[in-house]
């Protein structure tokens, strides 16, 4: 970092001696250098390296990482894969490329969550979940929406969660995740639409919002012991929410086994 900063200040000195020409003239190599330095700083929990990355002479190159889809993906995968404790996340958040979840609009925040979750392995999920929750005001729109996203994430990776469970446990677990999602999504809708919600029809709702009411209907059918009705709702949910199809495709059979 120090050498590159010196090069930015005195390029003629380096050019005259043909020093670091290949490394410092090509933005691809500079970007990769910065990504690996960030990874190293996080892996060793080194705040001193993070301090050096905040040098104003390299801010343009640093912020350029998030404007390139390839570099942004690499950076996301490295950061999420490397961080294993909150202090490392806090170090990364000091960088201008991290953003601050406290000060973004809801749409932008949700977009960050959607982009981040696919790269988070299950063993790291709870770490990031707890860290994000610590940054959000409890009960706020961001808070309830983020919790809904957490249930959504677990449903997408359901095969990791139900391995070794018996039929009844699996049914209870999956229904628990689905109702958790629905409860948070409904709470978000109540805050979003307020008094208008009572007069709205399903056609007025977004697909993920309509899904919350479908799940509530599923729960009602299960509670009533209506195997046929519950199975029909599951199939409807699988069609309208293909990203959940693998997670819930076994539910009609399990509902039949459990409810008889």
Describe what is shown at a glance.
The protein is mostly helical.
Distance between the termini: 67 Å
Strand content range: under 5%
Q: Which geometry do the CA atoms define? A: elongated
Number of helices: 17
pLDDT < 50 runs, ≥5 residues: none
| Helical residue percent band | over 70%
Strand tally is: 0
Main sheet characteristics: none
Structural class: mainly alpha
**Radius of gyration, whole Å:** 24 Å
Set out the fold topology.
Layout: H1 2-9, H2 11-16, H3 21-25, H4 27-43, H5 47-53, H6 59-63, H7 69-82, H8 86-93, H9 106-116, H10 122-134, H11 141-156, H12 158-161, H13 167-193, H14 207-223, H15 227-240, H16 245-248, H17 251-259
Written description of the protein model:
- The chain is mainly alpha-helical and 260 residues long.
- 71% of the residues lie in helices and 0% in strands.
- The protein is built from 17 helices and no strands.
- The radius of gyration is 24 Å and the shape is elongated.
- The model has no long low-confidence stretch (mean pLDDT 85).
List keywords for this structure.
260 residues, 17 helices, mainly alpha, single chain, elongated
């Amino acid at each position: 970092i120090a050498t590159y900063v010196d090069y930015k200040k005195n390029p003629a000195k380096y050019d005259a001696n043909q020093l670091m020409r290949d490394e410092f003239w090509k933005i691809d190599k500079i970007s990769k250098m910065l990504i690996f330095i960030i990874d190293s700083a996080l892996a060793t929990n080194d705040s001193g390296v993070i301090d050096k990355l905040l040098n104003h002479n390299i801010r343009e190159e640093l912020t350029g990482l998030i404007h390139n889809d390839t570099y942004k993906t690499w950076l996301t995968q490295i950061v999420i894969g490397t961080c294993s404790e909150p202090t490392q996340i806090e170090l990364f958040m000091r960088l201008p490329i991290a953003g601050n979840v406290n000060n973004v609009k809801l749409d932008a925040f949700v977009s960050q969550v959607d982009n981040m979750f696919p790269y988070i392995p299950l063993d790291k999920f709870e770490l990031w979940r707890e860290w994000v929750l610590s940054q959000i005001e409890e009960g706020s729109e961001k808070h309830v929406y983020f919790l809904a996203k957490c249930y959504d994430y677990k449903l997408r990776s359901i095969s990791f969660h139900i391995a070794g469970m018996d039929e009844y446990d699996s049914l209870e677990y999956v229904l628990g995740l689905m109702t958790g999602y629905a409860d948070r999504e409904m709470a978000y809708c109540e805050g979003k639409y307020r008094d208008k919600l009572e007069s709205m029809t399903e056609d007025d709702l977004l697909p993920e919002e309509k899904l919350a009411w479908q799940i509530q209907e599923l729960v009602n059918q299960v509670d009533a012991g209506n195997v046929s009705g519950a199975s029909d709702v599951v199939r409807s949910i699988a069609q309208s929410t293909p990203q959940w199809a693998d997670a819930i495709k076994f539910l009609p059979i399990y509902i039949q086994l459990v409810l008889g």
